[in-house]
Description:
By secondary structure, the protein is an all-alpha fold.
Amino acid sequence: xxxxxxxxxxxxxxxFPERVRPYVESAPLAAFFIGMSSxxxxxxxxxxxxxxLAQDGIxxxxxxxxxxxxxxxxxxxLWAPLVDNTRLPIIGRFGQRRSWLWVVSVLVMIAVVxxxxxxxxxxxxxxxxxxxxxxxLGATLDIILDAYRIELLEPHQLGTGSGMHQxxxxxxxxxxxxxxxxxxxxxxxxxxxISCAIFALPAIFVGVVMGEPKRHIEPVATKGLLQAxxxxxxxxxxxxxxxxxxxxxxxxxxxxxxxxxxxxxxRLLFNDLGFTNEEIAFYDVGFGFVAFLIGIFIGGIMYSxxxxxxxVFISLILMAVSNFSFAALALVGHSNLGMAGAIGFENFAxxxxxxxxxxxxxxxxxxxxxATQYALxxxxxxxxxxxxTGTTAGGLIxxxxxVNFYLLTTLIAFPxxxxxxxxxxxxxxxxxxxxxxxxx
Length: 440
């Protein structure tokens, strides 16, 4: 870009308030559109597919079994090394990240169309295959887009870029779900799914406009099975050789347990407190969504003003304390004001954490292994909470009641806070960072 073009680009950004300008830089804007494309496959195999199957009269047991399609997102780190180490033939001349982005985006579009045209009432097994295929391809697209985003952003942009990505993801997923329902009511599910495939286009266009990330490091061609085997495990080996790596990995594993336990049981609480579907839709979906967006914006400001470590530490405290608000709601009972306060606080804290913690996980990556290391860290951050929720949460609620359960989730969240405080004081939070989080 020429000097004159840079001056024009800067001029239009000057129309925005100073605190907003970092969000309208080219790389964070690209992260927004990447997020839109990242969120839509998840929405189509989530609530949208559940609604479709229910409307077609499929049994509840069969509908819930489709949750297996989400397993790909939890285990995407297993094939992430292929994305890091494999250069695609022919199209690979446009760059490793862009070629993978374009090919997988097109495959996701085809999978969405395939899922849309198959009739669940006539071929349920085929629908299951289509949903799992979309889950695998959607998870693979996540691997690519996360790597592209991290390598596109400069270290000082990781906070605003993570925030814009969160904005894009939520808007992409929400818009996809709403559009699918509206189109299905008027034109049928096939047209709904085919139309929603266009949400893959924003990421494709970002690859065209932004080009190959400047911070991307191309892989060295492997020779022989032994070298390929070594390359597969190189991302993990590089990480665990860092000073304090095991402690960092333990922090990533435990820091979201309390938050995940609380969030995945909220609908049970709302149902038992007697909240109507309309109240849940307004407060949990509508009011909570606005609070989440505000939290994302505040998180970006915190990151830019306070730096990585301080902003992460404060967000961890806020996310831990937010669980206490649900204990208070359970104690008060059916109260719209109480629900608004609890949901608002929780989503506000989650929005801030979605910026700062995601930026921290991004900063931990080595630019040579961005796709694999981020996939591994993001999976590590969610798997413990999801496992405990599925195996123990229901029993704990029945045994100790909602108030004590949410007080317990608050306590469970604080070891992560204390551990990160220790990492800050000991210097491990700095020395364990990868080159993605360090200025050149």
